[in-house]
Structures are given as structure tokens and as C-alpha cells.
Amino acid sequence: MKISGTTRVFLILGDPVAQVRAPEAFNHLFAQHGVDAVLVPAQVKAEDLADFVRQVFKAGNIDGLWVAIPHKTGITAVLDHCDTLGRAAGAVNAVRRNADGTIEGALFDGVGFTKALGTFGIPVQGRNALVVGVGGGGVAIAASLAQQGAGRVALFDATPGRTDAVADRLRAEFGVDVVSAKSADPAGYDLVAHATPLGLKIGDPLPFDVTRLDPDTAVVDILMKNQPTPLVRACRERGIDAHPGFEMMVQQVPEYLSFFGFDHIAKTVQADPTDVRALFTQA
């Protein structure tokens, strides 16, 4: 990779950042398409986030930010503009400085999720869905499911009361039946999205009882590590249709590229994401 005084710089903010996969994919694409740009991880503490974002955009060659955990919610406080999904979810994962100096955010996690469902042959319309975990990723998934016409979206989180405000916002924004679930029991749902950290550490319990899944339920586990995840393995052992989170990441790539002005690359990747998919699925 050639870095020079003309290189456009993008940062991916998180705490920690060791786990982020975006730089390997996007820097590969920049190099492949002859784009003089680079995506670099930046570890930023939550208490420093607002000041960091305001200061970093004073650098004329820093054009945008990818946003990783735990900053997807907190960064909304510094935005001047936000897209519909980001506003409804109260979280974003992409931020850019506009020509007029304003800061704009957008949310692509849920878009990637629903596009991934399409590649799996799973329709969203009319689905009775359960989202387990309503951190930044889970909220984004719930918002996109509601926007795309799911019949009902139930939200469960281990933190008491965390789902109520989210359900209220999504009902108001999209007019879809969004409710808080009393437990993570997957019985009765035909789509279950897992968006908690359970499964990242050896010995973690499963996020829900897979024996309670209906036979025709589709399960998507958005965790990127320990593939296939314990949940995906447990579901497949019972013959349940279960998918990993890689495709959700793959399908977000064209969205990020368009948001940051790389429409020509976005169209290429959207037409054939095979190369990007290989980057995300390799060990």
C-alpha cells in the first residue's frame, strides 16, 4: 500500500479495535481499484469520543469514520444529520463530513442483515422475528426488519428495560408491531437473530435453548469469531437452517462505499461480492 500526502484517510473507531475486519476488506478494495485512500483503526475511549470526532474532522484529509463497538450509539450525539434507520435505532456505524462542514451519520448493519437474508433465500415480509440482544447491532437489525415489512418484531435483552424505548421508537417510525419479549425463548418465531456477545468466549452458554426452535425457523448469528459459532453448530445439529454473520458484513460493503463517495467500486462489489466474501470468510 502506497501512502502519500494525497492519500484520503478514513478511521474505524472502537474500543477495543483488535477485532475489526473492515480495514482488510476496504484497503484491499482501495488498492484493487487504484483509489488513493486508506482505512486505519483508532482505539478511542467512550468518554473521549465526542471531542475526538469533532477534532479529527478538522483535518482536511480525513473524510469519514467507520464506527465499531461500543460507539455506535454514543456517536449520534455529535451528528448534525442522520438517516432514517439511524434515527429510529438511535445508532449509526458510518459518519462523514459534508462539504458544508456538517457531520452526517448512517446505519448499515441492519441493511446488511436484510440483504444477507435475501442471499439466503429468506424473505422478510410478514416474518415473525425475534432479535436477541439490542446493542448497536441488534437495534440496527430490528430497525431494518421493521422497515422492510416484517409482520412482528420481538426484542429481548438481558438488561432489564432496555428494549422498551427501542420498541416504542420503531413502532412510531415504521408502524410495525414491535414488542419487548419477556425471555429469549425462540419458540413460535420463524426468524431469530442473535446479536449478543455470547459465543465469543470459550465456555459461554448458548443465548437461547435451541431445542425450543420450531423446525422451519431460520437463525442468523452475527458473531464473526469462532466460526462456525456454538449457536450455529447447535442449530445445524438439529437440522435448523442457521447462518453465520459474514454475509451481513459483505452486504454492507457497497453501502459504505456509496456513502463515502466511491460509487464506482460500490456497483462493482454489489454486482459480484465474491472477492469481498472470500476476505471475510477466511480464517
Would you kindly provide a written description of the structure presented here, covering whatever features stand out?
- With 283 residues, this protein is of the alpha/beta class.
- It contains 11 helices and 12 strands.
- A 6-stranded mixed beta sheet has the order 2-1-3-5-6-4. Strands 9-8-7-10-11-12 form a 6-stranded parallel beta sheet, sandwiched between helices.
- Strand 11 (218-221), helix 8 and strand 12 form a beta-alpha-beta unit.
- The radius of gyration is 19 Å and the shape is globular.
- The model has no long low-confidence stretch (mean pLDDT 94).
Task: Name the descriptors.
six-stranded mixed beta sheet; alpha/beta; six-stranded parallel beta sheet; 283 residues; globular; 12 strands; 37% helix; single chain
How many β-strand stretches?
A: 12
Largest sheet: 6 strands, mixed
**Percent of residues in β-strands:** 15-25%
- Helix count, per DSSP? 11
Describe the secondary structure blueprint for this structure:
Layout (H helix, E strand, L loop, with lengths): L7 E7 L7 H11 L4 E7 L5 H8 L5 E6 L3 H4 L6 E2 L1 H6 L4 E4 L5 E4 L2 H12 L7 E5 L3 H12 L4 E5 L5 H13 L2 E4 L10 E4 L23 E4 L8 H8 L3 E4 L1 H14 L3 H9 L2 H8 L2
Helix pairs in contact: 5-6, 5-9, 6-7, 9-10, 9-11
Summarize the model shown.
With 283 residues, the protein is an alpha/beta fold. Helix content is 37%, strand content 20%. Helix 5 (109-120) crosses helix 6, helix 6 (136-147) runs parallel beside helix 7 (162-174) and helix 9 packs across helix 11 (274-281).
